Protein backbone atom coordinates (compact mmCIF):
# COMPACT_ATOMS: atom_id res chain seq x y z
CA UNK A 1 0.00 0.00 0.00
CA UNK A 2 2.71 2.48 1.04
CA UNK A 3 4.73 1.48 -2.04
CA UNK A 4 1.74 2.23 -4.23
CA UNK A 5 1.33 5.66 -2.62
CA UNK A 6 5.05 6.28 -3.15
CA UNK A 7 4.81 5.19 -6.76
CA UNK A 8 1.77 7.33 -7.53
CA UNK A 9 3.38 10.27 -5.76
CA UNK A 10 6.56 9.90 -7.84
CA UNK A 11 4.57 9.75 -11.08
CA UNK A 12 2.54 12.85 -10.17
CA UNK A 13 5.69 14.69 -9.19
CA UNK A 14 7.42 13.82 -12.48
CA UNK A 15 4.32 14.94 -14.43
CA UNK A 16 4.34 18.19 -12.46
CA UNK A 17 7.98 18.77 -13.39
CA UNK A 18 7.22 18.02 -17.03
CA UNK A 19 4.25 20.39 -17.10
CA UNK A 20 6.03 23.23 -15.31
CA UNK A 21 9.28 23.31 -17.27
CA UNK A 22 8.96 27.11 -17.57
CA UNK A 23 8.88 27.49 -13.78
CA UNK A 24 11.96 25.33 -13.56
CA UNK A 25 13.74 27.47 -16.13
CA UNK A 26 12.74 30.64 -14.25
CA UNK A 27 14.16 29.25 -11.01
CA UNK A 28 17.35 28.28 -12.83
CA UNK A 29 17.84 31.87 -14.04
CA UNK A 30 17.54 33.06 -10.43
CA UNK A 31 20.19 30.52 -9.42
CA UNK A 32 22.41 31.67 -12.31
CA UNK A 33 22.13 35.26 -11.04
CA UNK A 34 23.05 34.23 -7.46
CA UNK A 35 25.89 32.05 -8.74
CA UNK A 36 27.32 34.82 -10.93
CA UNK A 37 27.08 37.30 -8.04
CA UNK A 38 28.93 35.00 -5.59
CA UNK A 39 31.49 34.10 -8.24
CA UNK A 40 32.34 37.55 -9.56
CA UNK A 41 31.77 40.12 -6.80
CA UNK A 42 34.13 38.56 -4.16
CA UNK A 43 36.90 38.52 -6.79
CA UNK A 44 36.54 42.32 -7.06
CA UNK A 45 36.81 42.89 -3.31
CA UNK A 46 39.96 43.02 -1.16
CA UNK A 47 40.89 39.75 0.56
CA UNK A 48 39.13 39.33 3.92
CA UNK A 49 40.98 40.18 7.13
CA UNK A 50 41.45 37.86 10.10
CA UNK A 51 38.24 38.96 11.80
CA UNK A 52 36.05 38.57 8.70
CA UNK A 53 33.15 36.19 9.14
CA UNK A 54 30.29 34.65 7.17
CA UNK A 55 28.00 37.34 8.62
CA UNK A 56 30.03 40.43 7.77
CA UNK A 57 32.12 39.59 4.72
CA UNK A 58 30.83 38.63 1.27
CA UNK A 59 34.00 36.73 0.34
CA UNK A 60 33.80 34.50 3.42
CA UNK A 61 30.06 34.09 2.85
CA UNK A 62 30.69 33.00 -0.77
CA UNK A 63 33.42 30.63 0.43
CA UNK A 64 31.01 29.08 2.91
CA UNK A 65 28.21 28.93 0.35
CA UNK A 66 30.32 27.26 -2.34
CA UNK A 67 32.54 24.91 -0.34
CA UNK A 68 30.80 24.60 3.02
CA UNK A 69 27.26 23.99 1.86
CA UNK A 70 26.77 23.79 -1.89
CA UNK A 71 29.46 21.31 -2.87
CA UNK A 72 29.23 18.73 -0.01
CA UNK A 73 25.44 18.72 -0.08
CA UNK A 74 25.25 18.44 -3.86
CA UNK A 75 27.22 15.22 -3.38
CA UNK A 76 24.81 14.02 -0.67
CA UNK A 77 21.86 14.81 -2.93
CA UNK A 78 23.04 12.36 -5.60
CA UNK A 79 22.36 9.10 -3.72
CA UNK A 80 19.17 10.62 -2.27
CA UNK A 81 17.60 12.22 -5.34
CA UNK A 82 19.65 11.11 -8.33
CA UNK A 83 21.00 13.88 -10.52
CA UNK A 84 18.18 16.25 -9.63
CA UNK A 85 20.84 18.87 -8.87
CA UNK A 86 21.99 18.72 -12.49
CA UNK A 87 18.48 18.96 -13.95
CA UNK A 88 16.85 21.36 -11.53
CA UNK A 89 19.50 23.65 -10.07
CA UNK A 90 22.91 23.47 -11.77
CA UNK A 91 23.67 26.89 -13.32
CA UNK A 92 26.39 25.44 -15.52
CA UNK A 93 24.19 22.76 -17.07
CA UNK A 94 21.37 25.21 -17.60
CA UNK A 95 23.66 27.79 -19.25
CA UNK A 96 25.20 25.12 -21.45
CA UNK A 97 21.77 23.98 -22.63
CA UNK A 98 20.65 27.58 -23.14
CA UNK A 99 23.78 28.36 -25.21
CA UNK A 100 23.18 25.19 -27.21
CA UNK A 101 19.74 26.50 -28.13
CA UNK A 102 21.34 29.61 -29.71
CA UNK A 103 24.55 28.16 -31.15
CA UNK A 104 26.00 26.36 -34.11
CA UNK A 105 24.39 22.98 -33.51
CA UNK A 106 27.42 21.05 -34.75
CA UNK A 107 27.75 17.28 -34.44
CA UNK A 108 29.53 16.03 -31.32
CA UNK A 109 33.17 15.35 -32.24
CA UNK A 110 34.62 11.88 -31.74
CA UNK A 111 37.31 13.00 -29.29
CA UNK A 112 34.64 14.25 -26.94
CA UNK A 113 33.03 10.83 -26.68
CA UNK A 114 36.21 9.30 -25.22
CA UNK A 115 35.29 7.34 -22.09
CA UNK A 116 38.28 8.57 -20.08
CA UNK A 117 37.13 12.21 -19.78
CA UNK A 118 35.24 11.79 -16.48
CA UNK A 119 38.39 10.42 -14.81
CA UNK A 120 40.85 12.79 -16.48
CA UNK A 121 38.70 15.92 -16.03
CA UNK A 122 38.03 15.08 -12.36
CA UNK A 123 41.72 14.39 -11.67
CA UNK A 124 43.04 17.52 -13.39
CA UNK A 125 40.44 19.78 -11.77
CA UNK A 126 41.12 18.30 -8.33
CA UNK A 127 44.87 18.84 -8.63
CA UNK A 128 44.53 22.31 -10.16
CA UNK A 129 42.09 23.32 -7.42
CA UNK A 130 44.68 22.44 -4.78
CA UNK A 131 47.49 24.26 -6.56
CA UNK A 132 45.54 27.51 -6.70
CA UNK A 133 43.86 27.02 -3.25
CA UNK A 134 40.35 27.05 -4.64
CA UNK A 135 38.75 26.69 -1.21
CA UNK A 136 40.38 29.89 0.03
CA UNK A 137 40.62 32.52 -2.66
CA UNK A 138 37.91 34.11 -4.82
CA UNK A 139 40.17 34.50 -7.86
CA UNK A 140 40.87 30.79 -7.75
CA UNK A 141 37.13 30.12 -7.50
CA UNK A 142 36.60 32.38 -10.49
CA UNK A 143 39.28 30.49 -12.45
CA UNK A 144 38.01 27.00 -11.58
CA UNK A 145 34.22 27.44 -11.46
CA UNK A 146 34.01 30.41 -13.82
CA UNK A 147 36.39 28.76 -16.30
CA UNK A 148 34.33 25.60 -16.20
CA UNK A 149 31.11 27.55 -16.75
CA UNK A 150 32.55 29.43 -19.73
CA UNK A 151 33.79 26.16 -21.21
CA UNK A 152 30.34 24.62 -20.66
CA UNK A 153 28.71 27.53 -22.50
CA UNK A 154 31.23 27.38 -25.34
CA UNK A 155 30.74 23.64 -25.79
CA UNK A 156 26.96 24.17 -25.64
CA UNK A 157 27.14 26.94 -28.22
CA UNK A 158 29.23 24.83 -30.57
CA UNK A 159 27.68 21.39 -30.27
CA UNK A 160 24.19 19.91 -30.21
CA UNK A 161 20.86 21.72 -30.33
CA UNK A 162 19.23 22.40 -26.94
CA UNK A 163 21.49 19.69 -25.48
CA UNK A 164 23.83 19.40 -22.52
CA UNK A 165 26.84 18.04 -24.39
CA UNK A 166 29.21 19.44 -21.77
CA UNK A 167 27.39 17.67 -18.93
CA UNK A 168 27.30 14.36 -20.78
CA UNK A 169 30.96 14.24 -21.81
CA UNK A 170 33.25 16.85 -20.25
CA UNK A 171 31.93 18.16 -16.93
CA UNK A 172 34.66 17.40 -14.33
CA UNK A 173 32.12 16.00 -11.86
CA UNK A 174 29.91 14.17 -14.35
CA UNK A 175 31.67 10.88 -13.61
CA UNK A 176 31.33 11.29 -9.84
CA UNK A 177 27.64 12.23 -10.10
CA UNK A 178 27.09 9.36 -12.52
CA UNK A 179 28.47 6.91 -9.94
CA UNK A 180 26.65 8.32 -6.91
CA UNK A 181 23.32 8.50 -8.74
CA UNK A 182 23.42 4.71 -9.11
CA UNK A 183 22.40 4.65 -5.43
CA UNK A 184 19.33 6.85 -5.95
CA UNK A 185 16.09 5.35 -4.65
CA UNK A 186 14.14 6.31 -7.80
CA UNK A 187 14.67 6.38 -11.54
CA UNK A 188 12.78 6.80 -14.79
CA UNK A 189 11.79 3.28 -15.69
CA UNK A 190 11.01 2.21 -19.25
CA UNK A 191 8.27 -0.29 -20.01
CA UNK A 192 9.39 -2.04 -23.21
CA UNK A 193 5.92 -3.32 -24.13
CA UNK A 194 4.32 0.09 -23.75
CA UNK A 195 7.19 1.62 -25.77
CA UNK A 196 6.52 -0.76 -28.66
CA UNK A 197 2.78 -0.03 -28.62
CA UNK A 198 2.50 3.63 -27.63
CA UNK A 199 -0.94 4.99 -26.84
CA UNK A 200 -0.07 8.63 -26.08
CA UNK A 201 2.70 11.28 -26.00
CA UNK A 202 4.55 10.17 -29.12
CA UNK A 203 5.68 13.66 -30.13
CA UNK A 204 9.46 14.18 -29.98
CA UNK A 205 10.85 15.29 -26.63
CA UNK A 206 14.19 16.83 -25.83
CA UNK A 207 16.32 14.89 -23.36
CA UNK A 208 19.07 17.47 -22.88
CA UNK A 209 21.73 15.11 -21.39
CA UNK A 210 21.31 12.76 -24.38
CA UNK A 211 20.05 9.71 -22.50
CA UNK A 212 19.03 6.93 -24.91
CA UNK A 213 15.49 6.84 -23.54
CA UNK A 214 14.36 3.48 -24.81
CA UNK A 215 17.35 1.65 -23.37
CA UNK A 216 17.67 3.66 -20.16
CA UNK A 217 18.30 1.22 -17.31
CA UNK A 218 19.33 3.36 -14.41
CA UNK A 219 19.65 6.86 -12.96
CA UNK A 220 23.30 7.52 -13.82
CA UNK A 221 22.92 9.75 -16.86
CA UNK A 222 19.43 11.11 -16.23
CA UNK A 223 19.12 14.69 -14.94
CA UNK A 224 15.63 14.03 -13.52
CA UNK A 225 14.10 16.89 -15.50
CA UNK A 226 10.81 15.04 -15.94
CA UNK A 227 10.42 15.88 -19.65
CA UNK A 228 10.10 12.21 -20.60
CA UNK A 229 7.54 11.42 -17.89
CA UNK A 230 4.83 9.26 -19.50
CA UNK A 231 6.53 9.48 -22.90
CA UNK A 232 4.80 6.94 -25.21
CA UNK A 233 2.96 5.89 -22.06
CA UNK A 234 6.15 3.94 -21.27
CA UNK A 235 8.38 6.01 -18.96
CA UNK A 236 7.57 6.62 -15.32
CA UNK A 237 9.47 7.90 -12.32
CA UNK A 238 9.61 4.76 -10.17
CA UNK A 239 10.88 4.06 -6.63
CA UNK A 240 13.47 1.30 -6.38
CA UNK A 241 15.96 -0.21 -3.95
CA UNK A 242 19.09 1.98 -3.66
CA UNK A 243 21.09 -1.18 -4.38
CA UNK A 244 19.16 -2.24 -7.48
CA UNK A 245 21.24 -0.52 -10.13
CA UNK A 246 24.59 -1.65 -8.75
CA UNK A 247 23.58 -5.24 -8.06
CA UNK A 248 21.30 -5.92 -11.03
CA UNK A 249 22.29 -3.53 -13.83
CA UNK A 250 26.00 -3.13 -12.91
CA UNK A 251 27.69 -2.42 -16.27
CA UNK A 252 30.94 -1.41 -14.65
CA UNK A 253 33.81 -0.50 -16.94
CA UNK A 254 37.49 0.34 -16.67
CA UNK A 255 37.07 4.10 -16.50
CA UNK A 256 34.42 3.89 -13.78
CA UNK A 257 36.74 1.60 -11.81
CA UNK A 258 39.60 4.06 -12.30
CA UNK A 259 37.43 6.91 -11.03
CA UNK A 260 36.24 5.00 -7.96
CA UNK A 261 39.54 3.36 -7.05
CA UNK A 262 42.26 5.79 -8.11
CA UNK A 263 40.16 8.96 -8.32
CA UNK A 264 37.78 9.04 -5.36
CA UNK A 265 39.59 6.58 -3.09
CA UNK A 266 43.10 7.81 -3.97
CA UNK A 267 43.68 11.13 -5.62
CA UNK A 268 40.80 12.93 -3.87
CA UNK A 269 42.01 11.69 -0.47
CA UNK A 270 45.49 13.04 -1.24
CA UNK A 271 43.95 16.39 -2.18
CA UNK A 272 42.17 16.60 1.19
CA UNK A 273 45.07 15.30 3.28
CA UNK A 274 48.22 16.99 2.02
CA UNK A 275 47.77 20.23 3.94
CA UNK A 276 47.31 18.34 7.24
CA UNK A 277 50.02 15.76 6.69
CA UNK A 278 53.35 15.94 8.54
CA UNK A 279 54.73 13.65 5.80
CA UNK A 280 54.16 16.43 3.29
CA UNK A 281 56.33 18.76 5.39
CA UNK A 282 59.06 16.12 5.79
CA UNK A 283 59.25 15.46 2.04
CA UNK A 284 59.23 19.17 1.24
CA UNK A 285 62.00 19.95 3.73
CA UNK A 286 64.12 17.06 2.48
CA UNK A 287 63.70 18.24 -1.11
CA UNK A 288 64.48 21.87 -0.14
CA UNK A 289 67.62 20.80 1.71
CA UNK A 290 68.78 18.77 -1.27
CA UNK A 291 68.17 21.69 -3.64
CA UNK A 292 70.07 24.15 -1.43
CA UNK A 293 72.97 21.71 -1.03
CA UNK A 294 73.15 21.52 -4.82
CA UNK A 295 72.87 25.28 -5.30
CA UNK A 296 69.53 25.05 -7.11
CA UNK A 297 67.38 27.92 -5.86
CA UNK A 298 64.77 28.68 -8.50
CA UNK A 299 62.29 25.99 -7.31
CA UNK A 300 62.19 27.78 -3.93
CA UNK A 301 61.03 31.05 -5.44
CA UNK A 302 57.42 32.10 -4.99
CA UNK A 303 57.02 33.90 -8.27
CA UNK A 304 54.38 31.86 -10.07
CA UNK A 305 51.22 33.76 -11.07
CA UNK A 306 48.07 33.14 -8.94
CA UNK A 307 46.40 31.13 -11.73
CA UNK A 308 49.25 28.59 -11.70
CA UNK A 309 50.14 28.43 -8.02
CA UNK A 310 48.69 30.15 -4.96
CA UNK A 311 50.21 33.65 -4.89
CA UNK A 312 48.86 36.10 -2.33
CA UNK A 313 51.90 37.83 -0.76
CA UNK A 314 49.60 40.41 0.87
CA UNK A 315 48.32 37.70 3.24
CA UNK A 316 51.66 35.89 3.35
CA UNK A 317 50.39 32.89 1.42
CA UNK A 318 52.35 31.95 -1.69
CA UNK A 319 53.48 28.60 -3.05
CA UNK A 320 56.94 28.04 -4.40
CA UNK A 321 57.52 25.79 -7.40
CA UNK A 322 58.71 23.20 -4.89
CA UNK A 323 55.44 23.49 -2.91
CA UNK A 324 53.48 22.91 -6.10
CA UNK A 325 55.61 19.94 -7.11
CA UNK A 326 55.35 18.26 -3.71
CA UNK A 327 51.55 18.82 -3.65
CA UNK A 328 51.23 17.08 -7.03
CA UNK A 329 53.59 14.33 -5.83
CA UNK A 330 51.54 13.83 -2.65
CA UNK A 331 48.23 13.67 -4.51
CA UNK A 332 49.50 11.29 -7.19
CA UNK A 333 51.27 9.27 -4.47
CA UNK A 334 47.97 8.95 -2.60
CA UNK A 335 46.29 7.71 -5.79
CA UNK A 336 48.92 4.97 -6.08
CA UNK A 337 49.31 4.09 -2.37
CA UNK A 338 45.60 4.12 -1.48
CA UNK A 339 44.00 3.26 -4.81
CA UNK A 340 46.62 0.60 -5.62
CA UNK A 341 45.70 -1.68 -2.67
CA UNK A 342 41.99 -1.22 -3.40
CA UNK A 343 42.57 -2.31 -6.99
CA UNK A 344 44.73 -5.25 -5.86
CA UNK A 345 41.97 -6.33 -3.45
CA UNK A 346 39.41 -6.27 -6.28
CA UNK A 347 41.78 -8.09 -8.60
CA UNK A 348 42.49 -10.82 -6.02
CA UNK A 349 38.78 -11.13 -5.21
CA UNK A 350 38.04 -11.55 -8.90
CA UNK A 351 40.62 -14.36 -9.05
CA UNK A 352 39.07 -16.38 -6.21
CA UNK A 353 35.65 -16.27 -7.86
CA UNK A 354 34.62 -18.33 -10.89
CA UNK A 355 34.70 -16.35 -14.15
CA UNK A 356 31.81 -13.99 -14.63
CA UNK A 357 28.96 -15.53 -16.59
CA UNK A 358 27.12 -13.16 -18.87
CA UNK A 359 23.51 -14.35 -18.87
CA UNK A 360 22.27 -15.05 -22.37
CA UNK A 361 25.68 -14.69 -24.02
CA UNK A 362 27.28 -17.94 -25.22
CA UNK A 363 30.57 -18.82 -26.83
CA UNK A 364 30.91 -21.04 -29.92
CA UNK A 365 30.71 -24.21 -27.80
CA UNK A 366 27.43 -23.05 -26.27
CA UNK A 367 28.93 -22.26 -22.84
CA UNK A 368 28.23 -18.90 -21.22
CA UNK A 369 30.98 -16.42 -22.09
CA UNK A 370 33.40 -15.67 -19.27
CA UNK A 371 34.39 -12.03 -18.92
CA UNK A 372 36.64 -11.91 -15.92
CA UNK A 373 37.74 -8.33 -16.43
CA UNK A 374 34.21 -6.93 -16.10
CA UNK A 375 33.97 -8.86 -12.86
CA UNK A 376 36.49 -6.47 -11.31
CA UNK A 377 34.59 -3.50 -12.65
CA UNK A 378 31.22 -4.68 -11.42
CA UNK A 379 32.68 -5.36 -7.97
CA UNK A 380 34.31 -1.92 -7.94
CA UNK A 381 30.82 -0.40 -8.18
CA UNK A 382 30.15 -1.88 -4.75
CA UNK A 383 32.72 0.57 -3.36
CA UNK A 384 30.74 3.63 -4.43
CA UNK A 385 29.29 4.30 -0.92
CA UNK A 386 32.77 4.15 0.68
CA UNK A 387 34.30 6.32 -2.03
CA UNK A 388 31.44 8.84 -1.96
CA UNK A 389 31.50 9.08 1.84
CA UNK A 390 35.23 9.84 1.73
CA UNK A 391 34.75 12.73 -0.67
CA UNK A 392 31.83 14.07 1.38
CA UNK A 393 33.89 13.90 4.58
CA UNK A 394 36.84 15.59 2.92
CA UNK A 395 34.66 18.41 1.63
CA UNK A 396 32.86 18.75 4.93
CA UNK A 397 36.26 19.40 6.55
CA UNK A 398 36.04 22.82 4.89
CA UNK A 399 32.53 23.24 6.31
CA UNK A 400 33.82 22.38 9.79
CA UNK A 401 36.82 24.70 9.50
CA UNK A 402 34.54 27.56 8.52
CA UNK A 403 32.09 26.76 11.32
CA UNK A 404 34.96 26.62 13.82
CA UNK A 405 36.10 30.02 12.57
CA UNK A 406 32.59 31.29 13.41
CA UNK A 407 33.00 30.02 16.98
CA UNK A 408 30.89 26.86 16.59
CA UNK A 409 32.16 23.92 18.64
CA UNK A 410 32.98 20.91 16.46
CA UNK A 411 33.81 18.44 19.25
CA UNK A 412 31.07 16.16 17.91
CA UNK A 413 32.60 15.96 14.44
CA UNK A 414 35.06 13.10 14.95
CA UNK A 415 32.44 10.60 16.14
CA UNK A 416 30.15 11.61 13.30
CA UNK A 417 32.92 11.27 10.72
CA UNK A 418 33.93 7.80 11.92
CA UNK A 419 30.26 6.84 12.03
CA UNK A 420 29.62 7.99 8.43
CA UNK A 421 32.76 6.29 7.13
CA UNK A 422 32.03 3.08 9.07
CA UNK A 423 28.46 2.86 7.80
CA UNK A 424 29.54 3.59 4.24
CA UNK A 425 32.21 0.87 4.44
CA UNK A 426 29.64 -1.61 5.76
CA UNK A 427 27.25 -0.70 2.96
CA UNK A 428 30.02 -1.17 0.41
CA UNK A 429 30.88 -4.58 1.81
CA UNK A 430 27.22 -5.58 1.67
CA UNK A 431 27.07 -4.50 -1.97
CA UNK A 432 30.24 -6.43 -2.83
CA UNK A 433 28.77 -9.48 -1.07
CA UNK A 434 25.60 -9.22 -3.13
CA UNK A 435 27.54 -8.66 -6.37
CA UNK A 436 29.56 -11.82 -5.77
CA UNK A 437 26.33 -13.84 -5.75
CA UNK A 438 26.19 -13.45 -9.55
CA UNK A 439 29.53 -15.29 -9.77
CA UNK A 440 29.04 -18.28 -7.47
CA UNK A 441 26.67 -19.84 -4.97
CA UNK A 442 29.59 -20.90 -2.76
CA UNK A 443 29.53 -18.85 0.45
CA UNK A 444 33.19 -19.75 1.11
CA UNK A 445 34.39 -18.25 -2.19
CA UNK A 446 32.20 -15.21 -1.72
CA UNK A 447 33.54 -14.69 1.80
CA UNK A 448 37.13 -14.97 0.56
CA UNK A 449 36.41 -12.41 -2.14
CA UNK A 450 34.77 -10.09 0.37
CA UNK A 451 37.73 -10.35 2.74
CA UNK A 452 40.18 -9.56 -0.05
CA UNK A 453 38.20 -6.48 -1.08
CA UNK A 454 37.98 -5.40 2.59
CA UNK A 455 41.75 -5.89 3.03
CA UNK A 456 42.40 -3.66 0.03
CA UNK A 457 40.47 -0.81 1.62
CA UNK A 458 42.51 -0.78 4.85
CA UNK A 459 45.02 1.91 3.72
CA UNK A 460 42.07 4.06 2.61
CA UNK A 461 40.45 3.77 6.04
CA UNK A 462 43.76 4.37 7.81
CA UNK A 463 44.31 7.52 5.78
CA UNK A 464 40.97 8.95 6.92
CA UNK A 465 41.63 7.87 10.52
CA UNK A 466 44.95 9.77 10.43
CA UNK A 467 43.15 12.82 9.09
CA UNK A 468 40.26 12.70 11.59
CA UNK A 469 42.11 11.69 14.74
CA UNK A 470 45.90 11.90 14.46
CA UNK A 471 46.94 14.83 12.27
S1 LIG B 1 15.83 10.69 -19.20
FE1 LIG B 1 16.28 12.72 -20.05
S2 LIG B 1 14.26 13.63 -20.42
FE2 LIG B 1 13.95 11.91 -19.03
S3 LIG B 1 14.00 12.80 -16.98
FE3 LIG B 1 16.07 12.06 -17.46
S4 LIG B 1 17.09 13.83 -18.29
FE4 LIG B 1 14.91 14.30 -18.37
UniProtKB/TrEMBL annotation:
<feature type="transmembrane region" description="Helical">
    <location>
        <begin position="137"/>
        <end position="159"/>
    </location>
</feature>
<feature type="transmembrane region" description="Helical">
    <location>
        <begin position="258"/>
        <end position="281"/>
    </location>
</feature>
<feature type="transmembrane region" description="Helical">
    <location>
        <begin position="409"/>
        <end position="428"/>
    </location>
</feature>
<feature type="domain" description="4Fe-4S ferredoxin-type">
    <location>
        <begin position="66"/>
        <end position="105"/>
    </location>
</feature>
<protein>
    <recommendedName>
        <fullName>4Fe-4S ferredoxin-type domain-containing protein</fullName>
    </recommendedName>
</protein>
<feature type="transmembrane region" description="Helical">
    <location>
        <begin position="29"/>
        <end position="49"/>
    </location>
</feature>
<dbReference type="Pfam" id="PF12801">
    <property type="entry name" value="Fer4_5"/>
</dbReference>
<keyword id="KW-0812">Transmembrane</keyword>
<feature type="transmembrane region" description="Helical">
    <location>
        <begin position="380"/>
        <end position="403"/>
    </location>
</feature>
<keyword id="KW-1133">Transmembrane helix</keyword>
<feature type="domain" description="4Fe-4S ferredoxin-type">
    <location>
        <begin position="152"/>
        <end position="186"/>
    </location>
</feature>
<feature type="transmembrane region" description="Helical">
    <location>
        <begin position="326"/>
        <end position="349"/>
    </location>
</feature>
<keyword id="KW-0472">Membrane</keyword>
<feature type="transmembrane region" description="Helical">
    <location>
        <begin position="449"/>
        <end position="470"/>
    </location>
</feature>
<dbReference type="InterPro" id="IPR017896">
    <property type="entry name" value="4Fe4S_Fe-S-bd"/>
</dbReference>
Amino acid sequence: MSLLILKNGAVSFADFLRDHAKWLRGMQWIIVAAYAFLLIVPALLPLPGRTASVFNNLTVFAQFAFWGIWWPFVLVSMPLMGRAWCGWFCPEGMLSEWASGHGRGRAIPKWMRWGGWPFVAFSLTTIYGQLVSVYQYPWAVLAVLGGSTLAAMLVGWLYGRNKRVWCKYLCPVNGVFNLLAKLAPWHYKVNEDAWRHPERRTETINCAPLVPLRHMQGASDCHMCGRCSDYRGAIQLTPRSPEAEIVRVANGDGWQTALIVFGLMGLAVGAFLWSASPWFVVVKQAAATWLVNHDVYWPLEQNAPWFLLTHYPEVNDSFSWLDGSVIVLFIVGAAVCLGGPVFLGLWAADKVLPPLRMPGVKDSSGAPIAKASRGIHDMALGLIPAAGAGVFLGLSATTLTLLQHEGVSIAWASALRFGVLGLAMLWSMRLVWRITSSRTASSGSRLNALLLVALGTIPYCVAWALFFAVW
